[in-house]
Each structure stands twice: as structure tokens, then as C-alpha cells.
Amino acid sequence: MAATLTVKAPARPRKLLASRRTRVGILYALPVVVYLLVLFVYPILSTLFLSLKNPDGSLTLHWYADALTGVNLSVLFTTLRISAETALFALVFGFVLANAISRLKPLWAGLAMLIVVVPHFISALVRTYGWIIMLGDKGLVNETLAHLWVPGAPYQLLYNEIGVVIGTTSVMLPYTVLLLYGVMRGVDRRLLAAAASMGAGRVTIFRRVYLPLVAPGLASAGLLSFILSLGYYITPALMGGPDQTMIASLINQQVTKENQWNGAAAEGVILLLLTFAGLLLVKIVSSLGASRRKRSAS
Questions:
Q1: Is 182 helix (H, G, I), strand (E, B) or coil?
Q2: Bridge partners of 53?
Q3: CA distance readout (Å), 167 to 82, 114, 158
Q4: Structural contact between residues 242 and 208, judged by C-beta atoms closer than 8 angstroms
Q5: Measuring CA to CA, which residue among 106, 239, 88 is closest to residue 173?
Q6: Three-state secondary structure readout of 133-158
Q7: What H or E segment, with its residue span, contains residue 104?
Q8: 235 near 125, Cβ under 8 Å?
Q9: pLDDT digit string (tens) for 142-171?
Q10: Which end of the chain has fewer CB atoms at under 10 Å, N or C?
Q11: Which carries the bigger pLDDT value, residue 219 or residue 82?
């Protein structure tokens, strides 16, 4: 006798909505959905439409062509260069600092992380003015160099790319240290001890054991610093000169001084696309790191 197989038909949308649990879930999610639509989706779509709009109301790509040519293109390259330099220096100093903290006992490591993180909660404007005071011709840095008889002191450390990179690196350093500390704290030190017991030197252990284990964290921290630096405004505007104009300052100038909202919208969309591309890279790197850790565990 042939067995009769019954396949349960999928629930229809009306039946799903008839469920009290579903209705309650929709009711709870509705404020969040409205919040995202009003404060996230709508502004982005409005900016996108504004960047494609001519003064007569017709659609055009003129503003994007203008944003990717001439001075605007130079500002975009300057933004990418300063963001890359900031990410590099934040990685170097963050790696050294996070590596030192990860070797401390939990109590001292917690206190050290507190010292790293607490300045981040101080206003960025206050910190920027602090750097301006320290890096000025009569500031602490140049006065110290002059007392040490360093040739060429005082140095010009403000209103150039050096000052901008110093300021932005100090802002991005806590993010880098936090990410790298979490990765480094999770490294199994027994692997390093096993490599040492088999005759590997410190350089070999660092290059072939330790560095591959923390590489995903390095990539994520570097990309995060790069992404955050792309749209940073306060420090480049106060510590940089005309040659260090970044895209956020350009957008501010177009809106407040030139009343050029369409061009500013195009610049904003380009900045948003660069940010999304960076976030996608972070996601890819994180996925690759997770898959590598699974292969290592197996």
C-alpha cells in the first residue's frame, strides 16, 4: 500500500498577519522602521535626487562630473591621501600600544585602556585646540626641541599636512587600540611558546605566527580609521592650510559660502559611496578572518 505523503502548504500572508504574535512584532518594529525611513532613508534619497537635479528641475550628471574634475578632484585625492596616512600612523602607534597593553595583567590592562579611551570623550574641538597650543612655534613640542638643541627648531607643525595627520591620528587612535586589543587579547600565547620551543626566533614567531593571527584585526582597524577620517571636519579645518582642504570642508564651503547645494549633494553622495565601499571591505576582511580561524581550529 502506497504511503500517502502530505506536504504542508506555506502559511499565507493573511494567516501570518492574523497571528497575534506577528501583529505584536510588527507593532514593536514600526517605530524603528519609521525612525530609519525618516532620519536615514529619506535624507539619503533627497541628497541623491538633489545631486541629479538641474536648476530647471531636469535630471543631469553635471554635478558629479564637476565633483570629479579640477579642484574638486584634487580635494578628493587630498582626502584619500590624508585618510590613508592617518590610518597608517594610527595602525603603527595603535599596534605598539595595544600589544603592550595586551601583555599586562587584567587590572593594569584595564587601567591602561581607561587612559586610552577617556580622552576620546573630551570634545574634539577642545582636543584640537590643545594640539594647536602644543604644536605652535612657542608650544611645548617646539620649546622642548629648542632646549634640546635640535637643529632647525622650531618646526612648522601647524597649518600643513603634518599638523592635520597628527591631529586626526590622535582622534583615530582609541578606535584602533580598542579593536587591536580585543584581537590581541584573544591570541593563544601557547602557540607562541610552542613556536619558541621548536627553535623559532622572535622575528620568526612574530612574522609567521603572531602577525597572521592579528592580521584581520589590523585590516579592520586600518579600514575603520580610514573610513572615519574620510568625513572628518574639525581637525583638518583648524590645523590644516589651503592645500589640506578635505571633502567635508569643501561641502561646508559650497553650502555656507557658495550656496551650491547640488554640488555639495554630489560630493556627499561620493563620500557616502566611499564609506560604503570601505564598510564592505571591512565585512569581507572580517569574514575571511573568521573563516581562517575556523580552519585553524579544525
A1: helix
A2: 59
A3: 11, 20, 10
A4: no
A5: 88
A6: HHHCCCCHHHHHHHHCCCCCCCCCCC
A7: none
A8: no
A9: 888 888 888 877 888 899 999 999 999 999
A10: N
A11: 82
